[in-house]
Amino acid sequence: MREIPSSVIREAAVRLIYEASYRIGPDIEAAIRAGIGRERSAAARGVLEQIAESYEIARAESVAICQDTGMAVFFFEIGQEVHIIGPFEEAVNDAVREAYRDGYLRKSVVAEPMFERVNTGDNTPAVIHMRLVPGDRIHILFTPKGFGSENMSRIRMFPPAAGVEGMKRFVIETVAEAGPNPCPPVIVGVGVGGTFEQAALTAKRMTARPVGSHNADPRYAALEDELLAAINRLGVGPAGIGGATTALAVNIDYRPTHIAGMPVAVNMCCHCARHAETTL
Predict the structure, then answer these.
(1) What are phi and psi for residue 138, nearest 5 degrees?
(2) 145 DSSP β-pair partners
(3) What pLDDT digit, counting tens, does each position of 196-252 carry?
(4) Matching CATH number, 2-21+65-145, of 3.30.70, 3.30.2320, 3.10.129, 2.40.128
(5) What residues form DSSP beta bridges with 267?
(6) Which conformational region is residue 143 in: left (phi greater than 0), alpha (psi within -120 to 50 degrees), or beta?
(7) What is the pLDDT of residue 112?
(8) pLDDT at 119
(9) What's CA 231's distance to the chain center, in Å?
(10) What's the rounded Cα separation, in Å, for the pair 188 and 153?
């Protein structure tokens, strides 16, 4: 049994928050620059060039890539042979408090969603997803989720008869109806199958899959390419001003589901698809 103090988890979480908030991933930046070369519209190219410049400024000056620094979402894969010494959830929330305070990141969380809506003042509580896995390591993925794109996400509980065509229409319609609101170009995470909540969680996890990668199943990989092409034909374009770069990627994963259903969730993520990960 390997022992890991919760203080080590806290320190790692702080580093990941800074890394994700200040430094865009090379896959996202490469996709934006590829879009600049592909766009025929001068206005669309100008938007993409400004996005690329903002990435450079944020990286050089250690400032937030986007003013919406989101809710702090963590995915933990914890080895079954790990013993965490000290309070785990408290350590994660302490990391969020420290990083959002000292890193000058906007605090965007309200404690109660319908009536008072009072800001917690420190961006806690974090959203924590955990899964037990074999081994003696802890893998941490952090992704700050802004709500310009989160508000455009959708889930639909399809009957099995809806099939592939029903799923495709739903994904394309979701992006089309969102228009400029999720700050395109977007990454479209899609979760198929499972239960209501599992489909949504799968879709969110897919927004952090590297741009340019594909599902290992060739059928789903082909569907990713087909949907990406269809979405980019919508003409929404960067910032919604028109163009050929509405999405940078469509990332799909699936889960086993019930014989009577086919849940499909679409989680939208803006071009600031911020995430960082590490293994302890």
Answers:
(1) -125, 120
(2) 71
(3) 999 999 999 999 999 999 999 999 999 999 999 999 999 999 999 999 999 999 999
(4) 3.30.2320
(5) 189
(6) beta
(7) 98
(8) 98
(9) 18
(10) 9
Where in the chain are all domains bearing CATH 3.30.2320?
Answer: 2-21+65-145
Calculated CA dihedral for residues 169, 170, 174, 177, nearest 10 degrees: 60
Give the pLDDT confidence of 132-189 residue by residue, as tens digits.
999 999 999 999 999 999 999 999 999 999 999 999 999 999 999 999 999 999 999 9
* Closest CA relative to residue 73, chosen from 147, 11, 145, 157: 145
User: Is there a contact between 172 and 268 (Cβ–Cβ < 8 Å)?
Assistant: no
CATH topology of domain 148-272: 60s Ribosomal Protein L30; Chain: A; (3.30.1330)
**What are the DSSP calls for the chain, one per residue?**
-EEEEHHHHHHHHHHHHHHHHH---HHHHHHHHHHHHH---HHHHHHHHHHHHHHHHHHHHT--SSS---EEEEEEEEETTEEEES-HHHHHHHHHHHHHHHTTPPP--BSSTTTT--B-SS-PSPEEEEEEESSS-EEEEEEEE-HHHHTT-EEEEE-GGGHHHHHHHHHHHHHHHHTTTT-SSEEEEEEEES-HHHHHHHHHHHTTSPTT---SSHHHHHHHHHHHHHHHTS---GGGS-SS-SEEEEEEEEE---TT-EEEEEEEE-S----EEEE-
State the pTM of this model.
0.95
